[in-house]
Amino acid sequence: MKIESMRTRSYRSFKVDDAELPAEARERLSAIRRYDELRGAGCAAPAALREIGVSRRTMCRWKAALAASGQRGLAPKSTRPRRVRRWSYKPSDVKAVLDLRRRHPFMGKAPIQRMLERKGLRLSVSTVGRILSRAIAAGAVPLASICEGRVKPRRRRRFDGWARRWKYGDKAERPGQLVQIDHMTFSRDGQTIKEFRAICPVSRFMVARVFSRATAFNARRFLDALVECFPVPVLSIQVDGGSEFMAEFEDACRELGIDLRVLPPRRPQWNGHVERANRTARIEFWNFLDCDLTVKAVSRKLLKHEFFYNYERPHSALDYLAPNEYLVAQEAA
Questions:
Q1: Interval 190-211: pLDDT, tens
Q2: How far apart are CA 78 and CA 148, in angstroms?
Q3: Residue 228's pLDDT is what?
Q4: N or C, fewer C-beta in 10 Å, the chain?
Q5: What distance in Å separates the CA atoms of residue 33 and residue 26, rounded to the nearest whole number?
Q6: Of the candidates 284, 115, 289, the residue with the CA atom closest to the CA atom of residue 206
Q7: C-alpha torsion sign, points 8, 10, 14, 20
């Protein structure tokens, strides 16, 4: 008599409760069931995948994992390498690096590596960086930023409110979409003033206002002026990650129903229209400003420049039309 037993993975997979699975595995299992339901109802495979939001290759990979290892096969796999690199430095190396860093708290890994090399201790820049990282995490040495007066590292912005991350490829297709906003500082003779500027990438229509400080409250005041002066409805706004575009500014966008997109850090090229407008303002307005740098005095002249920019100045990007002329021509078409 021949006795055959079922494979372990075959019957164990049916004993797994959905509640015991990780959240990501439950989501994948739900997507597979939803896909099978749509296919059973006569829906084509491409349409079913679009409805679920999963690619064909991903669905095939999930189904293969489910068939091979059951529901637990849908759990995310660990990406930790099998072989982890061991420390390649000695305690004496750690002492030499930390002693030098304590004497020069402003130095990074590259200068420290070069100074140790002069003394005959050969360590790579990466090794010095690992030693410093572990020492900073343990509190043995402070961050180098303490020398600049900034003790705490900058934290990444959390997108748990109205603002959303800017996605690569987002582009304005009609006036009022993804209006770019930025602020710049102008100083002269010990006086400083802040200017907020917004420009429509499609029509090049521009709105600018000056304030004494670049705060979220003043950014909200500028948003109110932008909505009031703009000739078309403002549908969405694109800003960088500055603190002036948080708090009250984000709340104002939510109240007005304006979509707010935030650019990744250190990517001014994706806010190119308003950056170019800032340069134009420095050349055509700020260089010829002949009054005191007070909000009241500058505002009068800035409004005249704004009118000239929007209603009289030809723009090569608009086939030498003024922004208002371009909008009128678009409405007539």
A1: 889 999 999 999 999 999 999 9
A2: 39
A3: 94
A4: N
A5: 11
A6: 284
A7: positive
Q: Which amino acid, one-letter code, is at 327?
A: L
CA distance 317 to 129: 48
Which stretches does DSSP call E strand in 203-301?
A: 206-211, 236-239, 259-262
What residues does 181 pair with on adjacent strands?
Answer: 198
**pTM greater than 0.85 (yes/no):** no
Tokens standing for residue 226: 């932008």
User: How many CB atoms lie under 10 A from the CB of residue 104?
Assistant: 14
Q: What's the confidence (pLDDT) of residue 14?
A: 46
Cβ neighbours, 10 Å, residue 216 = 17
Give me the helices (H) in 70-202, please. 91-103, 109-118, 125-138
DSSP 147: G
Cα–Cα dist 301/112, whole Å: 53
Question: Which two tokens mark 205?
Answer: 């229509």
What residue type is assigned to position 69 of the chain?
S
Structure tokens at 294: 């007070």
Joined tokens for residue 81: 């390498």
